[in-house]
Design brief:
By secondary structure, the chain is of the alpha/beta class. The protein has helices at about 25-35, 55-60, 75-85, 100-105, 125-140, and strands spanning about 45-50, 65-70, 95, 115-120, 140-150, 165-170, 175-185. Helix content is about 25%, strand content about 25%.
Length: about 190
């Protein structure tokens, strides 16, 4: 696992040991950041279920202003700290050792709304759906901010009665789907 582009390009990143995390494959990360390339500069990033912190760190390398990393595993938190120190981004990062869903509620009003939120929980456990609903309820995204949901290839997220519009969905291989949603804080749909 490595940083693909930007100021920390080529830096190798550690991953937490064991089967509890599933780092986003470099080819998926490269495809995703090619889509996001015009949105990263000076952005505020929230990396939920952060694991190694690779998505937030890739964002910082490409010019994001700040990133908040949230994970409940102490091993993941220690790995994120190591990766941030290695890439020299510790001064642009906040690390939250907590459950992602609890953190959304706990920090409601303390975090400024983000430009981009990465949500990459374990597949098939319903956590991405719960996070999407909480992000909508607590308005953690700016108007037209993006939620990047990494889910199982056969999973679907329900955005009915939310302010999220699906912009694109792509399946990678047999196991992974990336959905990109735009948050319309004023409640308008994309065509309005």
């Amino acid at each position: 696992m490595r940083v693909i582009s930007g100021s920390a390009r080529g830096a190798k990143l550690k991953a937490p040991h064991g089967m509890n995390t599933r780092p986003t494959a470099d080819r998926i990360k490269e495809s995703l950041f090619n889509i996001l390339q015009g949105q990263i500069l000076d952005a505020g990033i929230l990396d939920l279920f952060a694991g190694s912190g690779a998505l937030g760190i890739e964002s910082l390398s490409r010019g994001a202003a700040r990133a908040v990393f949230v994970d409940k595993s102490i091993e993941s938190i220690n790995t994120i700290k190591d990766n941030l120190q290695h890439t020299h981004f510790m001064d642009k990062a906040d690390i939250c050792h907590n459950d992602a869903l609890f953190s959304i509620k706990k920090y409601n009003g303390r975090w400024n709304p983000f430009d981009i939120i990465f949500c990459d929980p374990p597949y098939h456990m319903g956590w991405c759906q719960k996070a999407l609903l909480s992000i909508d309820e607590y308005v953690l995204l700016k108007n037209k901010g993006l939620l990047i949901a990494e889910i199982g290839a056969d999973e679907e997220l329900n955005t009915e009665d939310t302010k999220f519009n699906l912009l694109r969905s792509k399946v990678y291989g047999a196991t992974t789907k990336i959905n990109i949603y735009e948050f319309m804080a004023d409640g308008t749909s994309r065509g309005e």
